[in-house]
Every structure is written in structure tokens, then in C-alpha cells.
Design goal:
- There is one protein chain.
- By secondary structure, the protein is α/β, with parallel strands linked by helices.
- It contains five helices and seven strands, in the order αβαβαβββαββα.
- It has a single domain, classed as 3-Layer(aba) Sandwich (Rossmann fold).
- The strands form two sheets. Strands 2-1-3-6-7 form a five-stranded parallel β-sheet, with helices on both faces. The chain has a two-stranded antiparallel sheet with strand order 4-5.
- β1, α2 and β2 form a beta-alpha-beta unit.
């Protein structure tokens, strides 16, 4: 089975033809690298996302998740010296879909419930992020 972030030709055509409608989407972006978070936030804004809530630590991300209504989360798998699997599981339990954005993903080490989450490998493109968001939000197919 191909990685979740690779779109089939049919899915890519669907994305291009229908363009994922993101204006009302509220995204949590968890990224500890300031430059990557700036780029990712700009990508999300260029895709037309309604709101981007940026967190650089797991504590910041938890606080945002507690006070904001979120539609999807884009999570770096490793934040500083911590991994975010438990937080990702909490989001899924709260019915917030997730996208992993990481250069350090190891499916075998992920809990089973997180293995199906779409992933974009760093460095990622706007198109890859768009496809992963579409998958996470269930808008394709």
C-alpha cells in the first residue's frame, strides 16, 4: 500500500477539479522549528485555510486544543525531545483528524490507531499538504 500522502492520478484530478474548500477550516499547526512553522503557516494560508493556530510546544498545542474548536491538526511527530503520539490520540478521540508532518516517522513505532493518519514528509510542498488535508478531512473519493 502506498504512503498516505501520495495521491493517485484520480485523486489528484479530483483535488484539482474540485479544489478543497478550506475557508472555514480551523487548523492546529504543531511545529517546533520556527522557520518550518512560518513556511507551513504560509502554505496553509495560501490554501485558503480560515484560521491557523500555531503551537511550538506540546503544552501550547494542548492549550489551543482546549480553548479552540479545531477541524484538523498538522503535527510534527517529534517536538523537542518529546513525541506527540499521546496528544495525536487525544485529538482523534475528540474527533479532530490529524496529519503528520515529519521527517522522522516510523510506522512500526506508532500506535495502531495513528498509522492510518496521512503524512507529509519534510520538506513538503503545498500540493502534498493539500492532499494530506483532503485525506484527513475525508473530502476525496
Amino acid at each position: 500500500m502506498p504512503p498516505a500522502y501520495i495521491l493517485s492520478r484520480r485523486e489528484h484530478r479530483t483535488v484539482i477539479e474540485r479544489r478543497l474548500a478550506l475557508p472555514n477550516i480551523r487548523v492546529l499547526l504543531l511545529e517546533d522549528d520556527a522557520l518550518i512553522s512560518i513556511d507551513a503557516e504560509e502554505m496553509l494560508q495560501s490554501l485558503g485555510v480560515g484560521q491557523v493556530h500555531v503551537a511550538h510546544t506540546l503544552d501550547e498545542a494542548r492549550a489551543i486544543a482546549a480553548r479552540e474548536r479545531l477541524d484538523v491538526a498538522v503535527l510534527d511527530l517529534v517536538i523537542g525531545h518529546e513525541r506527540c503520539e499521546a496528544f495525536a490520540g487525544d485529538l482523534l478521540s475528540s474527533r479532530v483528524p490529524i496529519v503528520f508532518a515529519s521527517g522522522m516517522r516510523d510506522d512500526a513505532s506508532l500506535p495502531e490507531a495513528l498509522r492510518a493518519a496521512p503524512t507529509v514528509d519534510k520538506p513538503y510542498s503545498s500540493q502534498a499538504l493539500h492532499g494530506a488535508l483532503a485525506r484527513a478531512l475525508g473530502r476525496l473519493g
